[in-house]
Amino acid sequence: MTSAPIHAEIAQAAARLVAEEGLEYGPAKRRALKLLGLPARTPLPDNDVLEDAVREHIALYCADTQPDELRTLRGLAVEWMQRLAPFRPHVAGAVWHGTATRHSDIYLQLFCDDPKSAEIALINQGVSYEPGSAPGLQGAPVDVLSIACPSRALGVVVGVHLLIYDLDDLRGALRPDRRGRVPRGDLAALRHLLENDT
Q1: Which stretches of the chain drop beneath a pLDDT of 70?
Q2: Contacts of 14 (CB under 8 A, 6+ apart)
């Protein structure tokens, strides 16, 4: 059993990697083990613990810059959600939960009648993308279309990842998470966050 101080140390090291390098939670936790010289089999903190550590790290080290960075990323997400409106886009991850920094990517989940329709829309809009796959809502792989989007405001290239779901998947997608929060939001919900600066 992992002791509480070791667990906290892993979470803090992983939180720094998430906030300062834009790593996703899984890779950040595994890299934190290596950085701390811990065995690969060391039990890892769960995502709720890591999210708390990320919020703590932001409050301590990024409080002066992170709110503007988050606002910029949310604005960029709104632009893409407007462009992809026919596919019922929902934003998830750090941009939705408010823990995004300039190093974070944007994750949009599209719920499509026809899984190829979003790809065709990007081609029609002249948007370059990289196809890939990632674990989806139920853990099974889903198609991902990744776009490199330069942000003049942030001075970086932001990754915008479109996860392609079947329209039927939308039904279970808005169930509250373990903390009782809605795990993703549509365009109206994201605009509400931007307007209220939350």
Answers
A1: 1-3, 198
A2: 23, 25, 28, 29, 31, 32, 45, 50, 53
So what's the pLDDT on residue 172? 77
CA gap 5, 51 in Å, rounded: 17
Instruction: Retrieve residue 68's tokens.
Output: 């503007």
Strand runs labelled E in the chain: 90-92, 106-112, 130-135, 141-151, 156-166, 184-185
Among residues 134, 157, 158, 156, the alpha carbon closest in space to that of 145 is found at 134
Tokens 């997608």, residue?
Answer: 173
- Distance CA(88)–CA(157), nearest Å, equals 25
Look at residue 106 in the predicted model and tell me its pLDDT: 97
Reduced to 3 DSSP states, what percent helix, strand and coil does the chain have, rounded to the nearest 5?
Answer: 50, 20, 30
pLDDT of residue 136: 87
- Our measurement of the distance from residue 193's CA atom to the centroid of its chain's CA atoms, rounded to an integer in Å, reads 16
Q: What token pair was written down for 118?
A: 């979003």
Instruction: Give Cβ neighbours of residue 83 (< 8 Å, ≥ 6 apart).
Output: 125
pLDDT tens, 102-158?
999 999 999 999 989 999 999 999 999 999 999 888 888 999 999 999 999 999 999
- What is the widest separation between alpha-carbon atoms in the chain? 54
